[in-house]
Amino acid sequence: MRRWRLRRRDQRSRPVARWRALSALIAAACAGVSAASAPAGANAVNAANGAGVANSVSAVRMPVKPCASLTGMSLPDGGHVTGAAEVPAAGGIPAYCSVSMRVTNAADPRGGLPGDINIDLTLPETNWNGRYMAEGGGVYAGTVAPATDQLAAGYATSTTDTGHQESPLTSLWVINPAGGLNWNRINDFGYLSQHLMAIESKAVITAYYGVGPRFSYWNGCSTGGRQGLSEAQRFPRDFDGILAGAPALNWPQFMNAQMWPQLVMLWNDDFMPPCKQAAVNAALRSHCRDQSGQINGVFDPRTCDVLAILKGLVGTSTACGTFTATDAKVVQAIWQGPRKSGSQADLLHGKRVWFGLEPGADMGSVPGLTLASTTGPNDGSGPQQGVPFIPSADWHRNWIKQDQSWRFTDETYDEFWRDFRTSGAMFDDALATDDPDLRAFRNAGGKIVMWHGLADQLIFTGDSINYYNRVLKTMGGTRATQRFFRHYLAPAVTHCGRPGEGSIAPTDPMRAVIDWVEKGKAPAVLPASGTLGGQPVTRPLCAYPAPDAVYRGGDPNRASSYTCLDRVRPTDPWTVGDST
Predict the structure, then answer these.
(1) How far apart are CA 296 and CA 533, in angstroms?
(2) Structural domains of the chain, ranges and CATH numbers in brackets
């Protein structure tokens, strides 16, 4: 029962109204629309966060005991080391001690199968820099492998499967064969596994080197971004610095809202082929300008009249048929997100309940791995069928409905809203990660850098903007908040996107976190880089709520030609693509 009590004690009260890169499988599947060229494995999540950082904290520390002697070591909170073995240097990766740990958790009185948390920890043999870095997972996690991407820089690094073993895209692990749900595993996935990973990893680091880490960092994107913010909210002393990219905040709400694009097409009898969706984004790229006034595909939808461009497409020809008024209505509803008008016939008006895709984000190019994807002839010669985002369909089937026969085409308008309420009521406690009161983390000296692409095709950028707006209000305004927590928005960058062609993404955001923690150097801007037409481009990303960097003249491809304004201009995350 002890962990259950610990959770209840550490969790602060939440407001009543609340309202991924990805692991190996989804990183490979989404390579064309997200972090292209990311390394394989769980570490692909963190490549987007530029975690290859060096510089020693102090003199390099050497182990004080053999790696193999760690096997069988008892750990805090009931964990133990299941194996430890030396791995020789190879392929540019230095020699390291590979440690496997396991913690079981059966403390939740609601029952179900116990959580089975597996943790991998890599310990540099000859070049430990005194730092510990935990790396987050993608989607439902479920896999674990040694994190070797930080070894050359000297980091002790850990990862976890978050208490279950399965593909990161699915969650049969949540179903209790005896009936009901596995609440221990829900808690582990939601928040407990990353805390236990930090505790157990630090204990092993101390035993191996004879001293604990001087600085501890969290590096995650998507689910990993949510995990980092969960640590700041629930266990504020686990980490000194947190990098949270594209955070999957408010998991119970956005997992339901990710089904909205498919339902909008279903209810309008208009499953749009990829050709028409591509025509929308091509029109935006050919009309919306960047900060220097150029038309190059890099734009902020908050500064472009996206609805006028969308409406201008009506009646035009595409390779898959004429773009219709219904097509435009469907796209606008996808951009706006769920609105509750009380009638399935009106999806554009009513109460704003959740966020939609940013205009310009890929709507459906990868069946099953984007939100509005369809299959069928892409030339207008036959009907299309909707293909929901796999994890969102899984959420409905296993968590909400608990019915393996459920299909999204069965979902009515009224059922969608019932499911939305049910999702929050059942799972906010473990998964929402929406607490804006970060006083304990601030008072512990912690620092957070959060960033999000403005063309994220999976996680709604409006949610991170909304959360940061709430933090600003709770923590005393912009100046007070930016003393420990800064948020950056990257125009035209996809989910956990990396620098590349047409992607001017953060270059090394982890460096910004480390310099802030260790040198007291707050990041005035977050440097971004990429290429446009094969030409190298650098840009500064300004700390929100300042507007995008302003072009001041000179080479538009150089960051020095832009400046950030000392002006507070918060974004209303509900208004992009909104005509109401």
Answers:
(1) 9
(2) 2-250+432-563 (3.40.50.1820), 255-428 (no CATH)
Mean pLDDT by 10 residues, the chain (580 residues): 34 31 38 30 46 56 96 94 97 96 93 95 96 97 93 97 96 95 97 97 98 98 98 98 98 97 98 96 96 92 96 96 97 97 95 96 96 93 95 97 95 97 96 97 98 98 97 97 98 96 96 98 96 96 95 96 90 79
Please report the pLDDT score of residue 404 as a whole number.
Answer: 93
Question: How wide is the angle at C-alpha 13 spanned by C-alphas 9 and 18, nearest 5°?
Answer: 140
Residue 480: phi and psi, rounded to 5, are -65, -40
495 is catalytic: yes
Structure tokens given for 322: 């004429």
Say whether 13 is catalytic.
Answer: no
Question: Residue 101: is it exposed, middle or buried by C-beta count within 10 angstroms (0-12/13-18/19+)?
Answer: buried
Q: Give the span between the Cα atoms of 428 and 527, in whole angstroms.
A: 34
Using an 8 Å Cβ cutoff, are 214 and 445 in contact?
no
Q: How big is the CA angle at 191 (ends 187 and 195), to the nearest 5 degrees?
A: 120
Please say whether the beta carbons of 454 and 335 come within 8 A.
no
Tell me the pTM: 0.91
Q: How far is CA 131 from the centre of its chain?
A: 24
For residues 451 and 490, is the Cβ–Cβ distance under 8 A? yes
- Name the residue type at position 320: C
Pick the catalytic residue from 23, 167, 171, 222.
222
In the annotation, is 222 catalytic? Answer: yes
**Which of the following is catalytic: 164, 195, 487, 495?**
495
- Catalytic, out of 456, 463, 548, 578: 456
Q: How much is the pLDDT for 380?
A: 84
